[in-house]
Specification:
It comes from Austropuccinia psidii MF-1. It holds the Pfam family DDE_Tnp_4. Residues 2-89 form the DDE Tnp4 domain. The chain is mainly alpha-helical. It has one domain (7-124). It contains four helices and two strands, in the order ββαααα. Helix 3 runs antiparallel to helix 4 (115-124). The two termini are 18 Å apart. Residues 102-115 have low confidence and may be disordered.
């Protein structure tokens, strides 16, 4: 049996076969749905943190989400993110200190992060 993969999303996105957003409105008040939203929110914080680091390091355009109009474009984006994650992890393994490159424009909370922490966050997303 093939394992299913889903994209976690915030409530702004519509639910689909691939996308699992938080429940909103009246259905969010159901106890099970409320628990789901709580667990999703905890995961989303870590995911947003990891994605923010990838965006900072690889300069993903902010408009990227507006460019994904079909499955082909989503597949391309997934390949892009996986490739950047692999490159990031490879650089982390050889001790790359990329924060030093941005002395004046440090990413948010850079002083509290290590490459090992970032690598764990990104790897745990899978």
């Amino acid at each position: 049996m093939k394992k299913a993969h889903y994209l976690l999303a915030d409530p702004a996105y519509a639910s689909s076969r691939w996308v699992v957003p938080a429940y909103k409105g009246v259905v969010a008040q159901n106890e099970d749905n409320h628990s789901f939203n709580y667990c999703l929110a905890k995961s989303r914080v870590r995911i947003k943190h990891a994605i923010g680091i990838l965006k900072w390091r690889w300069f993903f355009p902010r408009e990227m989400k507006n460019q994904m109009r079909d499955n082909h474009e989503i597949e391309y984006f997934v390949i892009l993110v996986v490739s950047c994650t692999i490159l990031h992890n490879m650089l982390a393994q050889i001790g790359d200190e990329w924060f030093d490159l941005y002395e004046d424009d440090d990413p948010p909370h850079a002083e509290n992060l290590s490459n090992h922490d970032i690598e764990e966050d990104v790897v745990n997303m899978h």
